[in-house]
Specification:
290 residues, mainly alpha, two-stranded antiparallel sheet, 2 strands
Length: 290
């Protein structure tokens, strides 16, 4: 009898502990439809096809070079719109593939969290800042004619913001090595700093490190000014405490596992079954106490 009482008491303590941490149902942002990210991907793909077609047309090639590359020389000639159009421009398959995968993976979460209007303004601003950073850096190195293209600067911005919001979410460095998102984002920033120094010494790779760093800086400023006070170090993907919902011991244990996974990996880390489980909990909470 004493052993049974002790076991029952321990289970009650554990259940009360779990219920005290039981969050409210998933917020609406996790269910928002995507508006901006799919459109941005389509625009990038169309511009990519235009670059491929320009190989067989000198007129089209001249148009693309004039309007979809950005450099200090472009700005000197008044082509200021290239600060934005270049951020939607890719001429190599590997380049657009990497950028669009990263954009879809992390941008879709941010668009749902921030809302499509805020996300659109943030993405466009990041692209502009990245282009300006490239032009300033190339001018400072005495190579104002060096052009740049690609969404990498804007993608660097949203990747850093995602990492600051979900620092423990898993991120695959080079698509292979799993690391915490913040560590991965800082690794890429460090890689760009190293590459920029190498370019300043006359070496390095033909990569727009200045644009990447400009985008990352834009993301950091955006997080510091607009997001840190709003979401804290990590956004609550669930909500506040909710004590009126009764769960079975099995449900409580499963909920705690899913909750921990959600806080570490973000919503994209959940399986379909786990998402449906949380949705069922949400419906029960909305229905009211049993």
């Amino acid at each position: 009898m004493d052993q049974y009482t002790t076991t029952t008491t321990d289970q009650s303590v554990r259940m009360n502990r779990l219920r005290s941490r039981l969050p409210a149902p998933m917020p609406d942002w996790m269910h928002r439809p995507l508006r901006v990210v799919p459109v941005v991907v389509v625009i990038n793909v169309l511009v990519f096809f235009a670059w491929q077609a320009s190989r067989w047309s000198q007129d089209l090639e001249g148009f693309m070079v004039t309007n979809f590359l950005v450099s200090w020389v472009h700005l000197e000639h008044g082509y200021v719109w290239t600060l934005l159009t270049a951020a939607f421009s890719h001429s190599e398959l590997w380049h657009i593939a990497i950028n669009m995968v990263v954009l879809w993976s992390f941008g879709s979460v941010l668009e749902r969290l921030l809302g499509w209007r805020v996300f659109l303004a943030f993405y466009l601003t990041s692209g502009l800042v990245a282009s300006v950073a490239h032009c300033v850096v190339s001018w400072g190195m005495g190579r104002p004619e060096v052009p740049a293209l690609g969404a990498s600067g804007a993608v660097s911005a949203l990747l850093l913001v995602y990492a600051l919001l979900f620092p423990k979410a898993r991120l695959l460095v080079f698509g292979i090595i799993p690391v915490p998102a913040l560590a991965g984002a800082l690794f890429f920033v460090g890689l760009d700093l190293w590459g920029l120094v190498a370019q300043g010494q006359g070496g390095g790779l033909p990569i727009g490190h200045g644009a990447h760093l400009g985008g990352a800086l834009c993301g950091l400023v955006f997080w510091l000014v607009a997001l840190r006070g709003r979401f804290g170090p990590s956004p609550r993907l669930d909500g506040g405490a909710q004590g009126g919902l009764r769960l079975t011991p099995e449900e409580a244990e499963r909920f705690d596992r899913v909750r921990r996974k959600l806080s570490i990996e973000g919503p994209e880390g959940l399986s379909q079954d786990e998402t449906e489980f949380l949705r069922s909990i949400r419906q029960r909470v909305l229905k009211g106490p049993e």
